[in-house]
Design brief:
The chain is an alpha+beta fold. It contains 4 helices and 10 strands; from the N terminus they run H-H-E-E-E-H-E-H-E-E-E-E-E-E. Strands 2, 3, 4, 5, 6, 7, 8 and 9 form an 8-stranded mixed sheet that branches. Strands 1-10 form a two-stranded antiparallel sheet. The protein is elongated.
């Protein structure tokens, strides 16, 4: 059994599946204006870098020195630009998602998300389910934030909320089957599968999108 100190407890609204379909892609839900702004920023940074390489590091005349100083100031400003999620996270419908590059057991994956100010992903609707399927690398299996560790066949999310019956369609065919004491859920192929919690998997973290500014 996992200690309750590893669980997220909350009193949020009961999760309900979405009622319509969506084509969940990277950046979906950001809005056309923000996407255009991000595109402009990307192009601007490219031009800025090109200028910085062209301008001498040790300018010999006052004009070049002034240009070099102004470009350095602009570069400092770009470094402080805010965005919805950290660079290594993916934004979708007001949330940020982290797809791990290494594997851990379910408990350690839960802790890893906590340490990043997030939680092992709670899937709230069909659009989110499709988004995860689209972004999870092929052949990867990844832990999600649900288990029946507290009571067999009583599946609960890491925030303490019970799994809605309407989510039963998200399980792969024949799952969950509790074969050899499988108490933790993973995203596998098209849907969910129950697996031994000690199994080492990739994992997915989730946290609300907020203004994240680079200070490096």
């Amino acid at each position: 059994m996992i200690s309750s100190r590893f669980s997220f407890r909350g009193s949020g609204p009961e999760l309900q599946p979405g009622s319509h379909h969506s084509s969940g892609h990277l950046g979906h839900g950001l809005g056309p204006l923000l996407l255009l702004q991000l595109l402009f920023i990307t192009l601007f940074v490219g031009v800025l870098v090109a200028f910085l390489y062209r301008v001498p590091k040790n300018p010999s005349d006052q004009k070049q020195e002034k240009i070099y100083q102004e470009l350095n100031q602009l570069r400092s400003g770009v470094d402080r630009l805010c965005r919805p999620c950290p660079w290594d996270w993916t934004s979708f419908q007001g949330n940020c998602y982290f797809f791990s590059k290494s594997t851990r057991n379910w408990t350690d994956s839960l802790i890893a998300c906590q340490e990043m100010g997030a939680q092992l992903v709670i899937i709230e609707n069909l659009e989110e389910q499709k988004f995860l399927k689209f972004n999870l690398p092929k052949k990867h299996r990844a832990w999600i934030g649900i288990s029946d560790l507290e009571k067999e066949d009583n599946w609960q999310w890491v925030n303490g909320s019970a799994l809605s019956h309407s989510f039963s369609t998200y399980w792969n065919e024949g799952e969950p089957n509790n074969q050899e004491d499988e108490d933790c859920a993973e995203f596998k192929k098209r849907g969910w599968n129950d697996e031994k919690c000690a199994f080492k998997n990739f994992w997915i973290c989730k946290k609300p999108a907020v203004a994240f500014c680079s200070r490096e």
